User: Fold these one by one.
Assistant:
Number 1:
Amino acid sequence: MSPADARGRWQDRYAASLMGVFGPPQQMLVSGRGCRVRDAEGRELLDMLGGIAVNALGHAHPALTEGLAEQMRRLGHVSNLFTTEEQLVLAERLLEVSDLPEGSRVFFANSGSEANEAALKAVLRHRQDTGRSRILALTGGFHGRTVGALSLTHKPAFRDPFGPLVDGVEFLPPHDLDALTEAMGAGDVAGIFLEPIQGEAGVVPLDPGYLGAVRRLTRDHGALMILDEVQTGIGRTGDWFRFQGAARRAGEDLTPDYLTVAKGLGSGVPVGAMIAAGTQNSARLAAGQHGTTFGGGPLAAAAGRITMETIEADGLLENARTVGARLADGLRTLDGVTEVRQFGLHLGVDVAADARGLVAVARDHGLIINAVGERTLRLAPPLILTAAEADEFLERFAPVLASAAPADPDHRPEGP
Ligand SMILES: *Cc1c(COP(=O)(O)O)cnc(C)c1O
C-alpha cells in the first residue's frame, strides 16, 4: 500500500467516525520522543507547537512515563471524597511558586475551560453578594469553549451560533484606559477576566502598566481580577507565571484574585487548576457550591508534580528564556518575518506570507508550527527545547519562508 493510500484510509475513517468540529486533521501521529514526533508515514517532525503549549516536557519524557506508570500501579483514581499525597503535594507546590498571599487555596479541574468556569462561579457569587451586575473581559480574549468560559471569549464566530450566554458580560478593548476607568467607575463591575498575553489572538501581550491599572481600579472599586494563565502559566514565559514577570517590569503588585492554569501543568495529562488568592477569595465558593469527579485525581496530580519538579530540577525556566531568545533573534534575521513577540518559549511571529500556507509548507520540511491569524504564527515548543534544536528549526524554517507565495508588498519586513 502506498503512503497516499494509507493517508486516504485514516482520513476517511476520521471523517466517518469523528465530529467535524476541528476540521480535517493535518496528519496522524504515532509516536514521539523529546521534541520530535513521528507520523503514520514514518516521517519525523520537529514539534515547535508542543500540543499547543501543553507538552512542557516534550514527548515520552522518562520522568513522566515512569512516574505515571508507577502511580497507576499504586492508585489511579479515588474521587474527591478522599485525598491523596499527590494532590496535597501539587496544591502546595502551586501555592509556593505563585507567591500568593496567606490563605490562598487551590481548586483542581481537568482543563482550562473548567478552571475558568470555577473562576466565573466565584465571580457570580461575588455578583450575588454585592449586587454588582457587570462582568468584563477583553476583545481578542480567549477563555475556553464551555458555556461559561465561552461567555468570556470574545470571538463572534465562537459565540454567535449559541445565542444568549451568561448575562452581563461586556468586552473592552485592551489598553483603553478611558474605557476601563469609565466601566470601573460605575461601581457595578463584579470582575474582569484577562490573559496577560493573549495567546489565541497571536501571542499579544498586555502592557504591564495596563495590568497595573486593572489591578488598582479593581481594588478601588471592589471588583475581582481574574488572570487566565492557562496558556502562559507553568514556565511557558520563563517565569512560573507571566504576571510575575509583568509585575517586575511594571514595578507594582499584579497579584490577581483568581489565577487559572491548565495547558502545560500536566505535560499532556489533563490537569487544570484555579488558585484563589488570600482567605476571602478562597472562601467564596462554599462547601457544596462547586465540584468535579476527576479533578485533582492522583494520576493527574502526579503528572503536575512531575512536570513542576522537572521544570525546577532541569532549569527549564532559564532554558525557556535563553532558547526562546535565541529563536527570536534568529527569526528576526529571516526574510519574510515582520515582527516577533517572544516571552520565554511563547512566540508570536508575524510573517509577510499567508500563515496557514506556511504551516503546510513547514510540515513538508519536517516542522510542526501553528497559525493564529492570517499573518501570524505561534510557536510554543516543549520547555526542554535545546539550543541545537532551535538552530535546526531556524535552518529548516528559512527555506519554508523563501518558498512561500510572493509577499504582499504591504507586509514587507522593515529594513535594517
Ligand atoms: C486553551 C485555553 C483555554 C481553554 O482551555 P481548554 O483546556 O481547551 O478548555 C482557556 N484560556 C486560555 C488562555 C487558553 O489558552
Note: The longest helix spans residues 112-130.
Number 2:
Amino acid sequence: MHIPFLDLRSQNLQYKEEFEKSFESFLDSGWYILGEQVRSFENELAAYIGVKYAIGVGNGLDALTLIFRAYIEMGRLNKGDEVIVPANTYIATVLSITENGLVPVFVEPDINTYNLNPKTVEESITPKTKAVLNVHLYGLVSRIEDLQATCKKHKLLLIEDNAQAIGASHKGTKTGAMGDAAGFSFYPGKNLGALGDGGAVTTNDKQLADVIRTIANYGSEQKYYNKYKGVNSRLDELQAGFLSIKLKKLDEENLSRQRIAERYCSEIKNKHIILPSYEHTQANVWHLFVIRCEHREQLIEYLNHKGIGTMCHYPVPPHKQEAYCEYNKYELPITEKIHLEILSIPMYPLLDEEQVSYIIESINQFEL
Ligand SMILES: *Cc1c(COP(=O)(O)O)cnc(C)c1O
C-alpha cells in the first residue's frame, strides 16, 4: 500500500465543479480585489467563529503581524514590549513579533500536549510583558481558561495563532474567539486551505478591526489618502470565493479528522511510541497527528519502507534557526526534546478505514 503524507490534489478535486462555477462568476464580474467575494467570506468567517469582525489578509503571517502592528498604532503596545510565545512553534508565529520590534519571550510547552503551560507562562511575566501569543498547535486547543485568567490578572493582550486550529472549540467557544484577536492561515495544507495564499484576522474590537483593515490596504481608508505607513496584504477575490465553498464543508472534514484521531489514539499501541494527549472537553481539529519516538530516524525509515509518508513539524525550533542567531544559545530542553522526537503521520479527511488500519498495524509492528 502507498499512503502519501498529504493528498491536496484529491482533496481539492472534490470541489471541482463548485470551484469552476465560482471562477466563472469571478471572471465575469471583472472585479479582482476587495469585492463581494471577500466581503461575503469575511461575514461567513466571523459568523462561523462567533466574533463581530473578520478581515481577510494576504496570508497567516501577515494576519499575526498586522495584529501587533495595529496595537502599536493604537498605542496599546510599544516597541521593546515583551510577548510571551511558545518556543515550539512554526517560525511565522515568532516573526510576527520580531517584525514589529517587539521582543519574543520563548517559553517551554507542556511536554504532553505541546501547548503552552499556563504555570510557565505566569512565571515568565516581567514588568515589560504586554501580550501572550498562544498557538493552538497541531489543531489542539491549548489550556485557554488558565491563559485567559493569567492575561486578565496581569492586563496582557491574549492573541491566538489559530493557523492550525480553525473549527476547534472548547465549552462552546471556538478558537479564534478566545482572546483579543486571532490570526488565521488559509495556506493550501491548512484545515481550511485556499488554492494559494490567504489569511484572516478575527476580533470583537471594532477599532482594532478598522486599523488592521486600513494598514493592510496601504494605510488608506480613502483611496490615495494614507493615514498609516501601510502594507499591501489583501485576500484575493478568487481565493475568497474558493474559501466560501470549502468553509461549508469544514465541520464535516474536521469530523473525519476526529474519527481518524480517535482510532489512532485508541488503537496505536507500541512501547516506543508516545501519543498526543489532550483534555476531553476539547473539540480538537487535528491539523496534524504528531507522535513521538526516541528512535525517530528508524521509525521514519520503517514507515517509508511500508509506503507510509511522514513529516516532521518541525525539525528545528525557532530559537535554533540561523535567522534567530541572537537566541541560538538559549537552552530550552523540553522544546528541543520535542523537536528531536516528533513525527507527523498521515492525517486528512480522505484517508479511508483501510488505510488507517494499515497505518495503525504498521506502527504497532514497529520494533527496534
Ligand atoms: C501556517 C502557519 C502560520 C503562517 O501562515 P502562512 O499563511 O503560511 O503565512 C503561522 N502560524 C502557524 C502555527 C502556522 O502553522
Note: The mean pLDDT is 97.
